[in-house]
């Protein structure tokens, strides 16, 4: 069965992939946990509660500090066909009354309110009688006196957990410093809160791309540089996972295959072996990975190019969760581009969708072909600025050169 949050992402918002961290945040909320999500600006924090709001049904209350921001969000949601409302001082009484009628009738999925509007006894009484599924506190750093934008009205929000004891609360902010975070947790959440700090950078993962020549030999050479370590190898086709695994085995590497064409028992057995033993190389299609949280994966090796930079980021993110040195290595050739283009063209999808898919593919190709620091390109795509990282192939390859490429790049980037 299709993941309901993914269906909403696609059908309502028109996106094919989650941005880094979004799926984790949503899963925690959908499991009924409180969440503090710290994600950079532009990361897509809004979707982290908008999608669960639609999956859960009922009413989601969104607290947002700025009226203009609320109006924008409500307008955007309505364009996407979502029943969103706001009650605020900038719209006339009649419109506010009409909005409240929709809320009270259970027609509204997301209701945007400023904190001072929400925290009146009348509003709270009325809301407590409705089917509230989720409460989202956007720009949650405003609750903290340590934060850069303290707002007195936000302080009162600490009463929410008592008034809606069974409703999961998500607090969202881009302000990541420790004291602000601790302060938000203490004020907004009574019991355990799951704090997810999701900067996009994973500096311990070395990024590399290699021209594809003889995939098998290239893979073997790479794997042999990490003896005894666990790794994930992604292949485009089921057949290839089996061939590659067999080839590694023949060369003395413990390798297992994983793809959706295998029986459930076989898949489970291989997954178990990978999770519990160390030094197993899992050669898999993208069917493998969802919810895999093995801390000591030393590398993710792509024998073929994925379909988007989002997918690539998600896949390489399975390496180095223990914070130790890890590697993301991809083989890349013209054949990959051709294959991916064909995939998109052959898809039974509207032209607009195909156009978007080609655009996302182009972004990934740009990443593969860049002469710039790869991490800069990757993070830049997710809206994060970075200096040359010194831990990707383009940074490292150019370091010793006499033309001063690296130095020039640092100077130019400064
Ligand atoms: P934040 O609040 O974290 O700064 P927003 O929620 O305003 O970020 O989202 C920033 C932009 O990213 C929006 O234009 C949004 O539509 C877009 N976005 C969010 N999630 C995705 C996604 N999964 N795929 C593509 N674009 C996304
Ligand atoms: Mg935001
Ligand atoms: Zn770099």
Automatic annotation (TrEMBL):
Tell me its cofactors: Mg(2+); Zn(2+)
Instruction: Tell me a GO biological process for this protein.
Output: DNA replication
Q: What catalytic reaction does the record list?
A: Couples ATP hydrolysis with the unwinding of duplex DNA by translocating in the 3'-5' direction
**Record domain Helicase ATP-binding: where:** 26-194
- Every copy of the Helicase C-terminal domain together lies at 215-365
Gene Ontology CC, one term: replisome
Its keywords, alphabetically, are: ATP-binding, DNA damage, DNA recombination, DNA repair, DNA-binding, Helicase, Hydrolase, Isomerase, Metal-binding, Nucleotide-binding, Zinc
Q: Please indicate if the UniProt record lists DNA-binding as a keyword.
A: yes
As recorded in UniProt, its EC number(s) are 5.6.2.4
The enzyme's main class, written as a single word, is: isomerase
Cite the GO molecular-function annotations of the record.
3'-5' DNA helicase activity; ATP binding; DNA binding; four-way junction helicase activity; hydrolase activity; metal ion binding
Q: Which family does it belong to?
A: Belongs to the helicase family. RecQ subfamily.
Per its record, how is this protein called by name?
DNA helicase RecQ
> Organism source for this protein?
Mesorhizobium kowhaii
What stretch of the complete protein does the chain hold? 10 to 423 of 612
């Amino acid at each position: 069965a299709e993941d309901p949050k993914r269906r909403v992402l696609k059908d309502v918002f028109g996106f094919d992939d989650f941005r880094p961290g979004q799926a984790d945040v949503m899963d925690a909320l959908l499991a009924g946990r409180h969440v503090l999500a710290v994600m950079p600006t532009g990361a897509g924090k809004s979707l982290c509660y908008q999608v669960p709001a639609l999956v859960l049904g009922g009413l989601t209350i969104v607290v947002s500090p700025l009226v203009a921001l609320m109006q924008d969000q409500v307008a955007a949601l309505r364009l996407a066909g979502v029943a969103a409302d706001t009650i605020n001082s900038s719209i006339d009484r009649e419109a506010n009354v009409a909005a409240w009628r929709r809320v009270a009738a259970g027609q509204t999925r997301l209701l945007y309110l400023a904190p001072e509007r929400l925290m009146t006894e009348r509003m709270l009484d009325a809301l407590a009688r409705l089917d509230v599924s989720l409460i989202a506190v956007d720009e949650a750093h405003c609750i903290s006196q340590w934060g850069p934008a303290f707002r007195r009205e936000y302080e009162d929000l600490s009463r929410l957990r008592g008034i809606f004891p069974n409703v999961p609360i998500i607090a969202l902010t881009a302000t990541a410093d420790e004291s602000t975070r601790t302060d938000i947790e203490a004020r907004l959440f009574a019991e355990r809160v799951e704090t997810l700090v999701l900067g996009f950078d994973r500096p311990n993962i070395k990024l590399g791309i290699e021209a594809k020549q003889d995939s098998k030999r290239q893979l073997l050479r790479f794997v042999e540089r990490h003896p005894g370590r666990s790794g994930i190898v992604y292949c485009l086709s089921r057949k290839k996972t089996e061939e590659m695994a067999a080839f590694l085995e023949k060369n003395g590497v413990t390798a297992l295959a994983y793809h959706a064409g295998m029986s459930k028992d076989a898949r489970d057995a291989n997954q178990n072996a990978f999770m519990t033993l160390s030094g197993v190389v899992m050669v898999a299609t993208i069917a493998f990975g969802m919810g895999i949280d093995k801390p000591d994966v030393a590398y993710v090796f792509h024998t073929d190019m994925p379909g988007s930079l989002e997918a690539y980021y998600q896949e390489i993110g399975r390496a180095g969760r223990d914070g130790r040195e890890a590697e993301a290595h991809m083989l890349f050739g013209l054949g990959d581009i051709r294959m991916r283009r064909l995939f998109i063209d052959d898809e039974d999808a509207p032209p607009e969708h195909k156009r978007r898919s080609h655009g996302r593919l182009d972004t990934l190709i740009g990443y593969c072909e860049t002469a710039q620091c790869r991490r800069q390109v990757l993070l830049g795509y997710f809206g994060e600025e970075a200096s040359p990282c010194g831990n990707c192939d383009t940074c490292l390859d150019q370091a010793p050169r006499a033309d001063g490429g690296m130095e020039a790049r640092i100077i130019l980037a400064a």
